[in-house]
Amino acid sequence: MKRKIGVWIAVCLCLVLVLAMPAFARAGGAGGGGGYRGGGGYGGGYHSYYRPYGYGMMAPMLLGPRLWGGLGIAAGAVVVAGGAAAVFVPFFSLLYRKNKLKKQIQAQAAEDPLWDYDALVLRAKETFFAVQQCWTQRDMAIGEPYLSRQRAGLFAVDLAGMRERGERNVLEQIRLKRMLPWKMQAASSSGPAAVWFLVQASMVDYTVAEMTGQVVSGSSHPQSFTEYWLFIQEDGRWVLDDIRQKKDKHQLPFPVYTGNLSQR
Fold this sequence. Notes:
- It is built from six helices and four strands.
- By secondary structure, it is an alpha+beta fold.
- A four-stranded antiparallel sheet has the order 1-2-3-4.
- A hairpin with a 2-residue loop joins strand 3 (215-234) and strand 4.
């Protein structure tokens, strides 16, 4: 009988805690327990548990270890559920958005072949690697076919500045982990056709002084990052027009991806 009571209490507690969890959990976003918060310590003394003619505060003591074991199982289940939510909620949100955008892009492709989904994603991936090579080699000829006129102008100014300072930005071990359409906009009187891509990648990124070879900034270890790249149609092709960081989320016209990216 005592065992059944302990199990029922554990189940009820588990249900209450799980239902109270936010729908979109994230690492460190839930809880905030600050360590063990139960019981209130031993300061109350033994007499505070004594209630004649009834269980009162004696109930936990009478139920014994089975109750605490059940509560431990419930707490463990909540922790596991929270961890699973932190992983699977962003994953399924990502999958939903991918399918949604793919359908929207395919619908546009019926009127404009430049919207072909596979060709568009391939173009975006090629652009990613071309831009890295353009930047680290300080050679606009590599990146110019993939950049809008506005972006090419900004790149040229930045690369010229690096040459004047005698610096080179070294990019190595470049790994593109995700290049996914995130938001699209058909051409209209207010602007050209455009697609924002979610970009998740990792690379070694540091700057050296050419004369001495000394590292000026950056790290020799691969670092993971999340960015958003804007592609527009210009002169009959898709070109890169803007790059935004994840921290710029308040300036972006869409919700940012909340999932984590392992630094591998």
